[in-house]
Amino acid sequence: MSDWESDKPADWGDKPVEPERESKPLFGRKSPKLPPESGRDWKLIEKLVMSLQAEQRRSRRWGIFFKFLTFGYLIALLFMFKFPLGESIEGVAGKHTALVEINGPIASDELASADNIVGSLRTAFEEPNSVAVILRINSPGGSPVQAGYVYDEIKRLREEYPEKKVYAVISDIGASGAYYIAAAADEIYANRASLVGSIGVVAGGFGFTGVMEKIGVDRRLYTAGENKAFLDPFSPEEEEEVMFWQSVLENTHQQFIDAVKQGRGDRLADDERLFSGLVWSGEQAVELGLADGLGSASHVARQIIGQEKLVDYSRRKSPFQDIVDQLGVAFGEGFASQLVESRLELR
Question: What is the DSSP track for 240-301?
Fold first, then answer.
């Protein structure tokens, strides 16, 4: 038998050569076998890519979250803007004294507008548990029209609810149109240092004709109607127009005087200076009959009304409106309007 046909296992020289295993191709295509160092680098790169992808996913999730948060915030602001005013009634269970605040200038576009004040007053009077109403005033005055609306509504509510008295309490200042409103109350109280009165009417403006002449500017105004350019600040002042405007002021002043006399009656002192536009301290106001006594809102509720619990029925601005006001967007517009407009105000 030949060695080729022997059953003995092959010696070392006879071992078959096994084919070398090829490394599996990366990403589906053949690539040269990498040395150990290159393999480790590739794994590091792969980990880096995976970590970057995870970071991107986290960023997208946080981005979506903050978008939803911003959207919800904008919805809340829009809701507050749509309903800018709300009644801050703390709870009307049990007997209490209703409180209505009048703060700042009295005008149709201010918080102390007739609509807001009248709405608060109606709610306070209609509440069965309110035993009386206090008007807490801190205002220099403003529009005679707005003040007249509130004055008339207080008179009407007093007749409709005769069992509920109205007390005006002046804090820092209750002058001009603010005192016009206070005169409709049953009684008026103030601090000894409060500013009270200023029963008068004022309207002001500016004349620019001298400046225009100096800088060489001509005024070109075209009207249909003899008095359509009445008191135009860029035209020379006409004596007839001034006299007519003075008659308007005096007529409005007389309306103010009549309202105060009707509200205060024989409590007013016989002093011709009362209706001259002067402002008085709280102590002087009591002596002149412009006020009935000295005291704060809590004092009146506790000592005069006999119901110490105060419930605020005032309408207030929303937080969104406060932010807008603080930005002062309308400052320039308001300043310009003061230069060219002549506004009638009670002072």
Answer: HHHHHHHHHHHHHHHHHHHHHHHHHGGGS-S-GGGGTT-EEEHHHHHHHTS-SEE--HHHII
Do 146 and 180 meet the contact criterion of CB atoms below 8 Å apart? no
Residue 118: C-alpha distances to residues 100, 154, 200 (Å): 10, 8, 23
pLDDT of 340 > 50? The answer is no
- The amino acid occupying position 49 is V
The alpha carbon torsion through 89, 91, 92, 96 (nearest 10 deg) reads: -80
Question: 226 φ, ψ to 5°?
Answer: -60, -40
Would you tell me how many other CB atoms lie within 10 Å of the CB of residue 137?
29
Residue-wise DSSP of 56-123: HHHHHHHHHHHHHHHHHHHHHHHHHHHS--EE------S-EEEEEEEES-B-TTSTT-HHHHHHHHHH
pLDDT band at 205 (very low <50, low <70, confident <90, very high): confident
Nearest in space to 105 (alpha carbons), one of 94, 119, 92, 116: 116
* Interval 131-142: pLDDT, tens: 999 999 999 999
Q: Note the pLDDT of residue 90.
A: 47
Structure-token pair, residue 341: 């407009």
| The pair of three-digit structure tokens given for residue 72, joined into one six-digit string | 């919800």
Q: Pick left, alpha or beta for residue 46 (phi over 0 → left; psi -120 to 50 → alpha; otherwise beta).
A: alpha
Q: Whole-angstrom Cα distance, residue 226 to residue 50?
A: 84
Q: Which helix (H) or strand (E) holds 203?
A: strand 201-204
